[in-house]
Amino acid sequence: MIASMAPNIAPVLFLLVLATSTFAQTNAQVYAPASGPAKGSLVVIGGGSVGKAIFDRFADLAGGYDAPIIFIPTAGDPDSYDEHTVEVSVLKKAGFSNITLLHTRDHKLADTEQFAAPIKKTRGVWIGGGRQWRLVDSYLNTRTHRELEALLDRGGVIAGSSAGASIQASYMVRGAREGNTVMMAKGYEEGFGFLRPVAVDQHLLTRKRVNDLVSVIAAHPELLGIGIDEATAIEVHGAMFQVVGESKVAIYDINTPGADGKPYYFLSAGEKFDLKTRRKLN
Questions:
Q1: What per-residue confidence (pLDDT) applies to 83?
Q2: Which one, of 36, 40, 231, 87, lies nearest residue 103 by Cα?
Q3: Calpha distance 94→53 (Å, rounded)
Q4: Could you give the CA distance from residue 220 to residue 222 in angstroms, rounded to a whole number?
Q5: Half-sphere exposure of 6 (CA within 13 A, CB side)
Q6: Sorting pLDDT into bands at 50, 70 and 90, what band is 220?
Q7: Sign, CA torsion 180/132/42/28
Q8: What would the pLDDT profile of 229-267 be if each residue is shown by its tens digit?
Q9: Which of 180, 173, 198 is nearest to 42 (CA)?
Q10: Which one of 93, 167, 203, 245 has the fewest CB atoms closer than 10 angstroms to its CB?
Q11: Is 235 exposed, middle or buried (0-12, 13-18, 19+ CB in 10 A)?
């Protein structure tokens, strides 16, 4: 009887080896290295009050406080903006003296060369807070979006706070029109993709959101989750970022849970993180 079973062993072993190999390949794809822009820099801010350390980093990367920068307020509620907009006033108070507003609710207009042209004349763009879906409706996959990518390619910097932070990731959280408590909203899950494969949440500790990214990473285990508290930012250069500001950044990675068994761990100001290896550097 044993002899009669022997011819069937080889095919079974072959199938087991094939399944193991396929699983390993799947894991290699799911847990791919994360990355920022190959050139240029990002300043991804968790919302709230922005301190001098963050403004200084953006200014240094944009060419100084007197350098021309663009402010995109489109995530906010109003349909129109002018130089008296609150966030413009905040940027001016911080020391920026050459600010151009770029705003539209018209996706077709955002896809024109004329509208996007001002981005070609700057090294720094700041994307304001509000609701992420408005940025998607206006700019995703338009000429404006491509000019932002071109800005990074020539060594520029893109900063974004709150909604302007989440939109910079490849997977966008809190995009639902119905409200910002919905983490995964069909039709509003694609961000600008400057960080990939990454999801960025904001107002992390201030609004008690520390557990909110857990469900996103469980549903999309290929993603690296980055939660950023208010008055805090990550400064991204290629495959590395450093924490800047007053509070903490949380890392959500299905490969590397926190030491205490929680599905996240924290980084503090000054600490660095390797996106390629998904590991803390210091």
A1: 84
A2: 87
A3: 11
A4: 5
A5: 4
A6: very high
A7: positive
A8: 999 999 999 999 999 999 999 999 998 888 888 999 999
A9: 198
A10: 93
A11: buried
258 or 27, which is more confident?
Answer: 258
The answer to whether residue 44 scores a pLDDT higher than 90 is yes
Rounded to whole angstroms, how far apart are CA atoms 282 and 279?
9
3-state secondary structure of 17: helix
CB 244 within 8 A of CB 234: yes
Question: Computed over its alpha carbons, how large is the radius of gyration of the chain?
Answer: 21
- Please give the sequence-ordered ranges of beta strands (E in DSSP) within 98-152, or none if there are none: 99-101, 124-127
Question: Is residue 30 very low, low, confident or very high in pLDDT (cuts 50, 70, 90)?
Answer: low
User: In the structure encoding, which two tokens stand for residue 235, read together?
Assistant: 């400064």
Tokens of 104: 């539209």
Domain 37-280: CATH superfamily is Class I glutamine amidotransferase (GATase) domain (3.40.50.880)
Give tens-digit pLDDT for 116-149. 999 999 999 999 999 999 999 999 999 999 999 9
**Local structure of 112: helix, strand or coil:** coil
Domain ranges of the chain: 37-280
